[in-house]
Amino acid sequence: MEIIEIPTNLIDEDTDQPRNQFDEDSLQELLKSIEELGLLSPIKVRTTNDGRYKIIYGNRRYKACKMLNRRTIPCIVSTVTDELEIYLEQIAENLTREGFSPLEEAEAFNKVLNDPKFSSSTKYLSSKLGKPESYIKNKCDLLKFSNAVKKLIVSGTEIKKDKLTEEQLMPIKELPIEHRDSLALIIARDELPVSDVKKIARLFKDKDISAGTKDKLLYKSGHELLETWSVYEQNKAERAKPAQPKSAIKKDKPEKDGLDPIMVTPIEDKLQRLLSSLPTHAPLPSEVIHSYEEIKTNDKEIFLKDIDILIENLEKHLVEWRKVGDLVKAKKNNPQLRATDQK
């Protein structure tokens, strides 16, 4: 492998290369290292038709040398002319370097797969880069998100405020865009760990929850979404319990003096559960009511949405139990209906 010194002014950057983000701090560190020790690793270039050279990899080293006004740069000159092979070599080289972001990987993979100039397959890309096909697919899935979300994506697995890791986004990548992007921003804002994101994703993937309800959930914080998931899962588990073989069930009280446990019907049990969870009404003090004025402007819309949800649920309970009450009263006051029930 021959290394030759090439005049810096004859070398051009490759604007189509996979890597386009360069951290300024790391570039300054590299510049200082080259200034003190020299360029320890040559860059790789290829010849162009006009007698110049285009970089295959080593853009950061080239930038640093140019900033130091180096007249020449040690280079390896490649004889490869196939554009796909060159681009794959650029990807492979960047995969070994720090600072190659998940989004840059995604865009590079997507270009190989969909650019008419390449139109390669995931299987071929996997074999050339030594990466599983699932790895390539997961990276490309990052491109589904909006630009606002993409700007927050960072390398690594550390959870940071207003940043997103690839692992945080994977559980929600298949959700409809109207839910996916909003949830991503909530996840970034509230620094939700992957385990919590998976729970929230299950909530939004549940087909028993209407799209309208899911839209309202997007006004909640990450913590509130987790509470909603917990309550919903408990209710679902309760509904999934097998029905009692008899119309009456045992009330959760111990036997006394050899007597059988108290027996209640399912409707009585439902009523008692609701009464135990519903606090006794007490008028809201005036100072409590007017404390809404202290709510931040941005949070008032969420507060009003929560009021609407509360009123909607209470009204549903009211309609349902009023029907039950009217039915019981009607049979109680009508001897013929009572006689029918007793047959």
Question: Describe it for me?
Answer:
The protein is 54% helix and 8% strand. It is an alpha/beta fold. A five-stranded mixed beta sheet has the order 1-5-3-4-2, sandwiched between helices. Strands 6-7 form a two-stranded antiparallel sheet. It starts with a strand and ends with a helix. Residues 253-262 have low confidence and may be disordered.
Quaternary organisation: single chain
Mean pLDDT figure: 84
* Helix-strand string: EEHEEHEHHHHHHHHHHEEHHHH
The portion of residues assigned to helices is: 40-55%
The global form is: elongated
Number of helices: 16
* Poorly predicted runs: 253-262
Distance between the termini: 100 Å
Largest sheet: 5 strands, mixed
Biggest sheet, spatial arrangement of strands: 1-5-3-4-2
Radius of gyration: 33 Å
**SS strand fraction:** 5-15%
What structural class should be given to the helix and strand makeup? alpha/beta
Number of strands: 7
Structure summarized in a few sentences:
With 343 residues, this protein is of the alpha/beta class. The chain has helices at 24-37, 59-67, 83-95, 102-114, 122-129, 133-141, 147-150, 166-169, 177-189, 194-205, 211-217, 222-240, 266-277, 286-289, 297-333, 335-342; strands at residues 3-7, 11-12, 43-47, 53-57, 72-78, 249-250, 263-264.
Pick out its properties.
16 helices; 343 residues; five-stranded mixed beta sheet; 7 strands; single chain; two-stranded antiparallel sheet
